Amino acid sequence: MTIGLLRGAALPVKGLAWLGRQGTRAIAALVILGLLVPPLGDILRPFVTEAIFALLCISFMRVDVAQVRANLRQPGTVLAATAWTTLAVPALAGLGCLAVGLDVRSPDLFLALMLQAVASPMMASPALAALMGLDATLVLITLVTSTALIPFTAPLFAYLFVVSALTLSPLALGLKLSAILGGSLLVAAIIRKLVGADAIRRHKEPIDGINILILYVFVAAVMGNVVSSFIARPLLMIALTLFAFAVFLVLLVATMLLFRKIGAGRALALGLMVSQRNMGLMLAATDGVLPGATWLYFALSQFPIYLAPQLLKPIARRVLARPSFDAAGEPVSSPANR
């Protein structure tokens, strides 16, 4: 009987490991499934906050603390990248939108863009950078520092630009973000203490599988109305999709140009991170109480995010052959050649 129970428990673990090995293919499949089965989105939408919290717990659980400390010894690039993604990007986005009158012409889209701009980078950014052979360590450190600032910077920019469009005050937004990030960090620390970092590394593939399953909750929730909206308003949906790709590319290219002196490979890694904003975190912080058009833009913005690794592979192959430099100006080899 005991052997039977063990075998029964091993099957789900093997299934999760198989799912985890599918990587970006599984993520792409999630998007397709979310589009094809919209009723699941309606069912799962109330659980977006819990799903984002779980995803954050897994991401924090896998952070290599020693690696973070080692890279903070040369903080110049990290500080510059943190300031760019947490301060400059939302400030420029807000001022640019006001300059063209987007807050008056399309308040819901303006709210979507500002929530996208004030969000921290996606927790999956280091993994995607590593998948492309880019400097995942630099991305990881900047991700940690910028995420730590979000409970303070997001309320500030919300107050400056979109306070009237939110259903909660900037202070409440900051407190909610602090609770989500602080709580997930605490849970992750407890898990690391109880299970051990070695065990977490050994079970990478099943954990990846769990990550993909939880990610489906978010994907299904935001993708639920996309197909019906395409049928009802095809021209508008095509325009919004192209706009989402344009925003992604502007952030990517601007970041690469800004950090070109540290080497094309590392600049591309930072560009990938900055262009992939954690909009799920903002959905969780606002309890998903957002206008329909804001939800729709968030859904369409997932396409460039999930297609980025495939789209940018030719560029990554070209730039990895060029020399990169660390914060002290010393040449370093690319991750692919180490």
Automatic annotation (TrEMBL):
The chain crosses the membrane at residues 47-65, 77-102, 108-131, 138-162, 168-191, 212-232, 238-259, 280-300. InterPro entries: Na+/solute_symporter_sf. It comes from the Bacteria. Keywords: Membrane, Transmembrane, Transmembrane helix. This is Na+-dependent transporter.
